[in-house]
Amino acid sequence: KSDKSQSEDDWNRFNNSPGYDVLTKLEFGKNYLRDIITVAFKPSEQKSESEVKNRYKKQGNYYRLFIDETVNGLKSADSCRESVMKFVKMITDSKTLDKVKEETGKYIDDAVIDSSFAVNFIVFSDSRGYDPIIIGITDPDKSTEEEHILLVAHELFHNLRNKRVKLQLPERGEPDSRIMNTINSIHNEGIADMINVHKLYADNPELINKIESQRVIKEQKYQKSVISAFDIILSELSVNKESADELEGMASSLITRSGHPAGYFMAKTINEVYGEKELKRLALKPFEFFYVYNNAAKKSGSAPGFSNETLSYLKRLEAKYFRE
After folding, report:
1. CB of 307 within 8 A of CB of 231?
2. pLDDT at 320 > cutoff 90
3. Distance CA 190, CA 86 (A)
4. What is the pTM of this model?
5. Which residue among 53, 190, 251, 269 is least crowded, i.e. fewest CB within 10 A of its CB?
6. For the segment 51-60, what is each residue's pLDDT rounded down to a tens digit?
7. Residue 179 and residue 317 in contact, taking contact as beta carbons nearer than 8 Å
8. What percentage of the chain carries pLDDT values higher than 70?
9. What is the pLDDT of residues 173-196, one digit of tens each?
10. Cα–Cα–Cα angle for 209, 215, 219, nearest 5°?
11. Cis bond leading into 132, ω under 30°?
């Protein structure tokens, strides 16, 4: 804010600080956070805000959907320090953590918070279920206490599920890596979204005007088409090895927001037909999640199912990458 340039050592210390270090290494690289913080706070660079945001929006769905929200969140956080500290105190209270465990425990067994449980709180507009869990905060007063609790429960589900699931994902660039990442994300986000998205934003008149609620309602309207198209791509992948790279790319582009919309649609369909306990049983079974969804879709009569070719393809991937 003083318009001074930070040294490379300063930025390296920032990128290596708890929470930001994981986002830098696993997702964004060292320049993204640096660029958006600079245009958000450095007076002489604020004129470049639109240029920087447009450049990142061209790099993919995540940036296109969230960079405006992220930059605005950084700006608002500067005036919300007192609220941020109250939020951290509330989330780390033992009674709050008991509620977090209770909500997570509806969808995964042994939802414990033990000595290995750790959370990094960072100024950011998104959260992650990594280990430690990353909780992004900008303006906590924009959300209710229930929203905060269920968000942490959502991320705790990811944290526990990712530690326990017997899935051997191929390394980036290897055959099947993109399609396996897509399948994994659909399962992971689908069940986790039952914890907070389903309860808060799908059918809640009190929150109907919130951005999150409007996004969910809009996305769910076209998920039948998305899943039908996904089925066509997987069917083609089952027989067309020569075009696998292109087809995997098409699938990952089709399934937006890390699998949230498609996964939630599938989890919601399973819940409507078989109930919450069945989703809990599927918490560590990513492929069976797809098979059970297919059965639920047939029973519901209103959701698209998968072709035999797609199911056979999923079975081959399961035999290769999943161990009970």
Report:
1. yes
2. yes
3. 30
4. 0.91
5. 53
6. 999 999 998 7
7. yes
8. 99
9. 999 999 999 999 999 999 999 999
10. 135
11. yes
- Report H helices in 16-106: 20-23, 31-41, 49-57, 61-77, 81-91, 94-104
Q: Is 165 left (phi over 0), alpha (psi -120 to 50) or beta?
A: beta
Q: Token digits for 97?
A: 């953590």
d(C-alpha 163, C-alpha 191), whole Å = 16
What is the spatial distance between Cα 275 and Cα 211, in angstroms, rounded to a whole number?
28
How far apart CA 208 and CA 37 sit, in angstroms, is: 31
Distance separating alpha carbons of residues 259 and 188, to the nearest angstrom: 8
Residue 202 has what pLDDT? Answer: 78
Is the distance from CB of 279 to CB of 202 less than 8 angstroms?
Answer: no
Q: Quickly tell me which residue has 């919130």 as its tokens.
A: 210
What DSSP assignment string belongs to 215-229?
A: HHHHHHTTHHHHHHH
148-157 pLDDT tens trace:
999 999 999 9
At a CB cut-off of 8 Å and minimum separation 6, what does 5 contact?
A: 42
Lowest mean pLDDT among 25-29, 147-151, 183-187, 287-291: 25-29
Residue 247, number of CB atoms within 10 A of its CB:
21
Q: What is the mean pLDDT of residues 238-255?
A: 95
DSSP for 232-289? HHHHHHTT-STTHHHHHHHHHHHS-GGGHHHHHHHHHHHHHHH-HHHHHHTTT-HHHH
Phi and psi at residue 315, in whole multiples of 5°? -65, -40
